[in-house]
Design goal:
The complex is a heterodimer of chains A (about 200) and B (about 160). Chain A is α/β, with parallel strands linked by helices and about 200 residues long. Chain A has 5 helices and 6 strands. The chains are: A alpha/beta (about 200), B alpha/beta (about 160).
Chain lengths: ~200, ~160
């Protein structure tokens, strides 16, 4: 018997099959973009003792049902909120904060550790306004921390790195550098500008 | 001279398509790898608000999603135009959050339970009433780590 070579498989339709699969995956693909503003809710505590906080250390932000912003009982535009929050946080009224660049106004907050931003909203407030305000307040903290990070970082061996970048590097497994030292710097900045944002829960 | 004359006719030669399957396969594999199948079918409108001070949600910790927004047109007749809550694949009441979180907790490994983050995917047109209710309910079940899911962009454009 003559030896017959196996007939070649026709691969002409391979492209069609691959195209079919490709189109299926193209259609079903959603590239995930999970990002957002992280927040921690306060736990429900049984004993609600009233802690007495000086009025000048509280920065009240109220968003009413018409999405208007009432900051320290005055109407304000969203664009100005960030600057106002920074001015309040960085005030350093009692002089104990040697890294603050504020006006040291005695009628405003004592130091960043005591300064509290209180956010209140109504049920009719729209979610997008609420998020914008949250975003601006986070931005105020980030801006202060970034400024501090550029100063300290340069001294501690992390030049040209702002706070957001430091945190990102700290989480990044590929970061080359001393992570323990970086953590120290991050913790120091976090202590100097603690994020004290309290939300009023209306029942 | 005519001996060396080009015998071919003047028509364009066909493009060689032998490598076409390879190219397509390459694309196919790319999309296969990046594909994440949609976990929930959305019954509500879900246009996220914009923010620029965002942090990435870390995938190594468990995440549960709570959706809220106005029902889509197909469900408008039955559920009205007010913002509603969606858990998994169906509309839910605020009171059902408790059992939802508890079942989510049961489905993840014990050592990771404390790290459960709840991602709130709320439509930008919704109002804070429903969000406050969700937050209050989450506090009661002690799911305190939350994340307001946002798109990226300037918050001033909202």
């Amino acid at each position: 018997m003559a030896k017959r070579s196996a007939p070649e498989v026709n691969a002409g339709s391979m492209a069609d099959i691959a195209f079919l699969l490709l189109i299926f995956f193209l259609v079903t693909t959603t590239i995930p973009k999970d990002s957002g503003i992280n927040r921690k809710l306060p736990p429900i505590e049984e004993n609600d003792e009233d802690v007495i906080i000086k009025q000048k250390n509280i920065f009240t932000v109220l968003i009413n049902g018409k999405d208007q912003l009432l900051v320290e009982d005055e109407l304000m535009e969203l664009e100005d909120l960030r600057a106002a929050a920074i001015e309040f946080l960085d005030n350093g009224g009692d002089g104990s904060c040697d890294y603050c660049n504020g006006k040291k106004d005695a009628a405003s907050s004592d130091n960043p550790d005591k300064a509290i931003i209180s956010l209140k909203n109504e049920r009719e407030t729209s979610y997008k306004t609420y998020i914008s305000v949250q975003n601006e307040l986070v931005a105020a903290y980030n801006e202060l921390r970034n400024r501090r990070a550029l100063l300290i970082g340069a001294r501690k061996g992390f030049p040209e790195m702002d706070f957001v970048k430091m945190e990102k590097n700290f989480k990044d497994a590929k970061f080359i550098g001393n992570k323990d030292k970086l953590k120290e710097v991050i913790d120091q900045i976090r202590n100097e500008y603690p994020e004290k944002l309290s939300e009023v829960y209306t029942k | 001279m005519s001996k060396f004359k080009n015998k071919k006719d003047d028509a364009l030669p066909a493009v060689n398509t032998a490598s076409l399957p390879d190219i397509v396969f390459m694309l196919l594999f790319f999309f296969m790898v990046v594909t994440v199948m949609r976990e929930d079918t959305l019954l509500i409108e879900n246009k996220l608000p914009l923010a620029d001070q965002v942090e990435k949600l870390e995938k190594k910790y468990p995440i549960s999603y709570i959706y809220a927004g106005k029902p889509t047109q197909a469900f408008e007749d039955r559920y009205g135009k007010e913002a509603r809550l969606q858990l998994n694949d169906k509309f839910a009441e605020i009171s059902e959050i408790e059992s939802f979180i508890n079942s989510e907790r049961l489905s993840i490994r014990e050592e990771l339970r404390d790290f459960l983050t709840v991602s709130l995917k709320v439509d930008s047109e919704a109002n804070m009433g429903i969000v406050s209710d969700i937050k209050q309910e989450l506090r009661e079940v002690n799911a305190l780590k939350i994340n307001y899911a946002t798109g990226s962009g300037s918050a001033l454009d909202n």
